[in-house]
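**Sequence, structure tokens**
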Amino acid sequence: MPNNSQNNITALNFAFLWFGAAVSIAEIMTGGLLAPLGFQTGIGAIIAGHLMGTTILVLGGIIGTEERIPALASTRISFGTYGSYLFSGLNVLQLLGWTAVMIMAGARSVNQITKTLWSFDHIALWSVVIGLLICLWIWTGKEGWKKWNLTAVFALFILTILLSLVVFQDDGIFTKRPAGSMTLGTAIELNVIMPLSWLPLIADYTRFARHKRDGAWGSWLGYFTGSCWMYIIGLGTAIAAENSDITAMMLVANLGFVALGIVILSTVTTTFLDAYSAGVTFLNFFPKLPEKTVALVMGGLGTILALLVNMEQYENFLYAIGSVFAPLFAIVLTDYFILKNKKADPQLMINWNALLVWILGIVLYYQFIKFDLILGATAPVMACTGGIYLLTWRCTKTWKCLKVSQKTYAQ
């Protein structure tokens, strides 16, 4: 494996990076949705879903380390150049969506805290402030976020310990009877989707790993630990307060400045990854543009969108991400790890078989959501999509659009 001066990120760096990404209001908020299961069943769903989701996530990261390519560039292996353009466009949209959602969620929480503490009420201003902090994080560059992320995640670690102590001082959380209704399959799916949402960008970072094991184990441990912890805090909060609003809980517990620190730091350490990777993905269209500049533009666009975003469709947004990227990466992972297609063919414009199987996977995802299987929808859909691709690739080898010289023709 090639190793140059850029490929120097260690397992510890990745653990802190992905722990910081996992410590977010979005993860706590999603954990709160599991409250109808009760604490014990909820914990089981969190662990089971994250075991599946984080493992799938890391497989995508391994491709980035081995081939030294960003995440969406790996889709060229299966789908060709034009196919990768399609998914790059979808990924830029979902990452801008995440950037806007995270900035708005953080701004609402900060505004609620400042309104309670100092009667200062201005969500739009806080959206801009958080957006500027994210752009500052991006501007520091790779060496900068290695250094600053270490400091920020350590601070978040201390702050979330304090938050955990407040949430779990109520013993009634562990015995309170569940209220409301949610199936185990739905709960597991909500846990799998969150790490899956990072799948289209993990290789943007693991391509700089010192060794494959650094990128894989560091990312797995950092994300699994941080995300499970945040989900459990959200679950416990929603059960104790019968309200999934984590900000209100922190204010009731008189956390004050601690609450403010948790919200701002967690929003910035998570959302800068979305904005940065939106920029990296955009380079799939225009590879000669400066990476950092494009990422800063994406951070600015995300901030503007945050001023217009509607948070009421959050759960549907998660399902939309799962429907698109679960079958997509099922095909890429099958191609890379099972069929051993390690390199993208520069002559391949479109692989029609891969594209058709991907569309079938999207249809299957929404059908499996209706079936409400105990494993959720993502894992079964990825298994089915990968299996269909595996069964059909040999007899559809000619279903490709190839480039010859300056002309393109269909085989």
Summary: The two ends are 34 Å apart (CA to CA).
